[in-house]
Design a protein that fits this description.
Layout (H helix, E strand, L loop, with lengths): L1 E5 L3 E3 L4 E8 L7 E7 L6 E6 L5 E3 L7 E6 L4 E6 L8 E8 L12 E2 L3 E6 L1
Parallel strand pairs: 2-11
Antiparallel strand pairs: 1-3, 3-8, 4-5, 4-9, 5-6, 7-8, 9-10, 9-11
Length: 121
Amino acid sequence: VHLLESGGASVQAGESLTLSCVASGYSYNTYSWGWFRQAPGKEREGVAIIDSDGTTRYRDTVKGRFTISQDNAKNTLYLQMNSLKPEDTAMYFCAADRLAYGLAPDAYTYWGQGTQVTVSS
C-alpha cells in the first residue's frame, strides 16, 4: 500500500484547509483509514479515522472542526479542517490497515510521508 498526502500549508488561525491522501497498491476492499499528526517533540496522535465498517472517530480536540471522508472511486482520503488553531500545527500523516480500529497509531501498518500544517495566531 502506497499513500501520498498533499494539501498542507501555512495558514492563519481560524482558516480552513483540506488534506488529501491518494492510496494505491492495495487489493482489499476493507481497510481502516486514518489521519494522524505529530508536532515537534510530541508523540504521534490520532486525529480522525474511518473504520472498515464506515464508523468515523475523532480526537476530542478536533470534534466539530475536522471532518474525515473518502472517495473510493478516486482512492482518496480527505481531512477537512475548519477553524484551525495554532495547536493544530503538526506534520499530518495518513495511514491504513486491514485490521485496525480506533485512533491508536501503533495499530496502523501503512503510512504516508506526511504533509506539514502550520497555523499562526
